[in-house]
Amino acid sequence: MIAGIIGAAGYAGAELVRLLHGHKKVSGLSLGSVSKEGERIENVYPNFLSKISGPLVTPEEVIAASDLVFGALPSGAGEQYAQSCLEKGISLIDLSADFRFDDDEETYEAWYGKGYAIPELRKNSVYGLPELNRERIKTMAASGPVIVGNPGCYPTGASLGIFPALAKELYAGGTIIVDSASGITGGGRAPQKSFHFPECSDSVSPYKVGAHRHLPEINRNVRQMAARFKRPVPPLVFTPHLAPMNRGILSTIYIPLHGERGALSGEAAIRPPSKETETHEAEIRELYSSFYRDEPFIRVLPQGLTASTGRVRQSNFCDISVHLAGGTLIVVTAIDNMVKGAAGQAVQNMNIVMGYDEAEGLETVPALF
Amino acid sequence: MIAGIIGAAGYAGAELVRLLHGHKKVSGLSLGSVSKEGERIENVYPNFLSKISGPLVTPEEVIAASDLVFGALPSGAGEQYAQSCLEKGISLIDLSADFRFDDDEETYEAWYGKGYAIPELRKNSVYGLPELNRERIKTMAASGPVIVGNPGCYPTGASLGIFPALAKELYAGGTIIVDSASGITGGGRAPQKSFHFPECSDSVSPYKVGAHRHLPEINRNVRQMAARFKRPVPPLVFTPHLAPMNRGILSTIYIPLHGERGALSGEAAIRPPSKETETHEAEIRELYSSFYRDEPFIRVLPQGLTASTGRVRQSNFCDISVHLAGGTLIVVTAIDNMVKGAAGQAVQNMNIVMGYDEAEGLETVPALF
Amino acid sequence: MIAGIIGAAGYAGAELVRLLHGHKKVSGLSLGSVSKEGERIENVYPNFLSKISGPLVTPEEVIAASDLVFGALPSGAGEQYAQSCLEKGISLIDLSADFRFDDDEETYEAWYGKGYAIPELRKNSVYGLPELNRERIKTMAASGPVIVGNPGCYPTGASLGIFPALAKELYAGGTIIVDSASGITGGGRAPQKSFHFPECSDSVSPYKVGAHRHLPEINRNVRQMAARFKRPVPPLVFTPHLAPMNRGILSTIYIPLHGERGALSGEAAIRPPSKETETHEAEIRELYSSFYRDEPFIRVLPQGLTASTGRVRQSNFCDISVHLAGGTLIVVTAIDNMVKGAAGQAVQNMNIVMGYDEAEGLETVPALF
Amino acid sequence: MIAGIIGAAGYAGAELVRLLHGHKKVSGLSLGSVSKEGERIENVYPNFLSKISGPLVTPEEVIAASDLVFGALPSGAGEQYAQSCLEKGISLIDLSADFRFDDDEETYEAWYGKGYAIPELRKNSVYGLPELNRERIKTMAASGPVIVGNPGCYPTGASLGIFPALAKELYAGGTIIVDSASGITGGGRAPQKSFHFPECSDSVSPYKVGAHRHLPEINRNVRQMAARFKRPVPPLVFTPHLAPMNRGILSTIYIPLHGERGALSGEAAIRPPSKETETHEAEIRELYSSFYRDEPFIRVLPQGLTASTGRVRQSNFCDISVHLAGGTLIVVTAIDNMVKGAAGQAVQNMNIVMGYDEAEGLETVPALF
User: What domains can be seen in chain C, in order of their start residue?
Assistant: First the structure.
């Protein structure tokens, strides 16, 4: 098959190029760029020299040449290409936020500043978090071309950490806090002050505190999972931070616990964790493991290990560690923001849509450095 | 005066050397080291060459030569020197945890693995967080030599962020979450795998989740401040992270809010912050500002700025920004872990004990890089 | 085939594990460690979890189980295993310096502090820089098991930059300067002060100036290539630096030029490069390109690009850019020190020895970050 | 006195602000900016909050308010302000390249693309490298207002490493190689791709190889020092590199040696350094030390230490280490590019011009991190 990428000159697009280049089912790539149309990909990314080369063409040419298309344009810029894909009868994996909110245009508009250009496209769209929606993606893809709204980076790490707490009835009610740190590639390739080396290296900075666009997306996922298991919908607070590293998102998630476990809170700050805490923690770990038993890209870490971004580098894994403290369940998730948080998950979605092995092209063993 | 430093070869000790070298009231330094006694400080720290030089002597020699001593030894290693100081009639600023818990030996023992060597020293000791205890330090120092238990790095950033929420009756009850990220210098100078460049650069890692020794110290401070204002004592959860930077601690603190403000929680994840949120936020910012009105080293940041470690680098400042989201008050504090989190605060304590201007020797304008 | 790794717990060993895991001809791995025998590889490297697992066994067990063995032990520690391999009739790719100097034991002893344990092993050994010795490796492997002395990281980048200048008669005589910067992984996994994050991040430091053990290895390669083309043997000066990055070696090499081109030197510092300089530079670039025409892992960069470590990350490429200034040819080479500088080149040698496609298992597209 | 800064919003300007804030003779600052006129300095640099504040005014207002002015504008943008200063009768320390070439307009034009706007200003200008020109600066300042052309960052580190080799007749003729690595702040505050975190962190990259504008400035300095001691003028080759750190320039300089020492070249790559090499090295170190005996900011390091940027951080020091290898003298110099390489040297020049203690305001002890 020929895979097309619209927006191949951005970081997520280039990561897609890299991943798809090694994908056994992909025989060729068609690369498009709006801003760099006419240039060659190996000039835009000289790291590709002698491996990947070719001109950046128009989105229309990409669609014409491809059997499936990835959209890696900014939110709000690509609905017409989605329509063209459907018209041609091919599927689109879209990395923008445009298809992440299904028919809830109101929420999308509130956070992204304008409504849908072509609302009816949502009849054929599905939110592409496989751990939430795998069956739905498959079913829709079985009956025709589909638009997959590929999840945001923060929502992926946050949602995967919260789901089992809802499903396994650990969550007791009360606010869930998501505190995340992202590598700088999350900001894309366009130079700006926040990502200028002297301004961001050797510093950790929160930004858009309580007001980041990924909050409603996390909320959407969590609400949906709560509904599935008939659980209360948790209020959410989300704080993203910029950390001086290239890749990775670490999310530390605080979930109030039920009953006996929750009752431990009074003790927390006074004495070190007791044997009892450890036992509860092991039980919860087991519940998390069983929830994700069949997931190819989720690793619930054994006791003694804490999730960290350095151990999922360049891979599609989401590492999860669970900890219990003061009646609060602390779940830590780590992903590579460019892989499971963007391009890798998009390839995973392609694999699901096309009926390929879900891990095809995503076999990279995490590099420690 | 002659200032002595026991443990001058460690990072906190060396930072003390640097700060005291520029202190107008300090005419000379006496430097001691247990492990490197006999070596010269400028060989241990060649960055000091031509500015600061001299042999590292024994702790006993330091005490004999000094008018005030700083202890920068590991916890549990220095009580006998504290006693010697008192016997000689000079004060000690101790950077270990040994004098941070006053007469609560039980808590100290539970977390540090052994009890006090000389319990009665606590009659002359005081916890040295000036923003909490300034008057007490002064009073005690007025009547004789004193041992100041210099605060831990995380407890400094965390406590300063929580205090006004208690004092100003913003805190509504429920668990307060402290999520912190520290630069690698926090781990000291002894090489170990966690601080080996390839293992920690380009990664963010939580550690000792819910079980870090600084938790009971934060708890102590918060309980004490709650008592002062007759507020409920908040249960605390604390997660430290290691971030790939040299200096700095960023703490993002989640505090459940009272009444009308707290009632906003249901809305949080659904719509972007409203004008109302901004108004509440401004009121809270004003309360924080007024609480710290007379503090020389606390900067409550104006609307639009978020605290980040890169802006307090090399200074004794604690930057604080306040944010409101989903009925939760999010307070972000940033300190330089080696200055306000260690050596700088120790100098501040010396200034208080000796009756100097509290900012003497701590005038460094933060370096952006 | 089963590939064995002795020394799998070190950085080079672990990188071998990662690369061989994806190698189509390798059906299984046997992992050995002297210091961590009995532990499991996925506990030593938790980034491997769910991808690669198994116990670390003794070197003897590795040899018994394998069809080819990689040695990743410190220099001087593995000759007996080399002998065991030969006795069993299997080849060894050795990453230490023990087989890099052929029968020149004197040079080895002068720099490594002791002589060969089993000198006669050198009858079956060959220096494994494919761009220098491919045919010899093939010939030897054709007639029985062979020991390949896998090159050092610095010598790889340096030698590849110098070879064409000798072969193409560009070098005019006089000292060749090799100025190199390495990422911190080059120092291995054992924590020590030089690689402690606060000591090496945000700093560039030369070390072992003019006295690094890789100097005689570069010298050996260069002398050999000079002999092949009957050119004068250049005196060499080599300065390694430590740079605050994980991977990569950049070598900036200064080569005095012949004749007309060399005569430009007087002008160099006075006026910007002329058109004539550019023409000469293009000619030299063409000579470099033609010299490496058939090499699968060497990329001679086009005009306008300068080699940098960030563009070969995680790949087996050696990027080369050539520049002309002041009668001096400046050649810049960039490799990933852990791949082309260690484990990748070892896999390349295995491929040559076993008659596989030379690029098998080394297809990774360089990651920009 | 009131010190003025034109261009206070750039990195060099802001570093000047920081340094002058602590300068005992400076009672006030007047801050100007062309691009950010009307904004406040503490908004442009929130790290200054509560320490330094005030509006950014026009260059004309700065000149009117000041007793001495610093110019921190791009090259070619500030000659008219220089003229205004002279007319007002006050001195200017100019950090651009406009006054670094004295009356050699031809060289300036060749490298900077246009000639002098007001050539006659050079009657009152002097190149401000104190170690080269201290007496001349003093003499000129004694007879009226002066324009000091503050040196470039690379030329400072390179020239200081070469001078003693000329003066002490160590240099034997032949090309001198200067290989330098700079921190990213050297590129200024304007975001661009080369300084975008994901593009430059974890990579070392040469740039403008053999064609950097600082080459003619190094050449100028070296020629002038050669003339002073009646030595041959060395041809120069200069390669700058970008390294992933904030501050610092490391220069590794290769100087061909005379006579007996130079004759060692043949041996270099064959055997480790001999006792004889060490003796010669010690003699050369002594010559370097004696040359800089009275310099307040130069530290010639003792045997066993190698200059590194991490040890001069935030200080005005230039560290120098000397090494001997293969008949080549290798001199390594390290400066903080923002201090001795820019703002610190400018303050040093102000001190000389005004007759203050030369080290006033520059007492910072280097921070190890």
Answer: 2-151+340-354 (3.40.50.720), 154-337 (3.30.360.10)
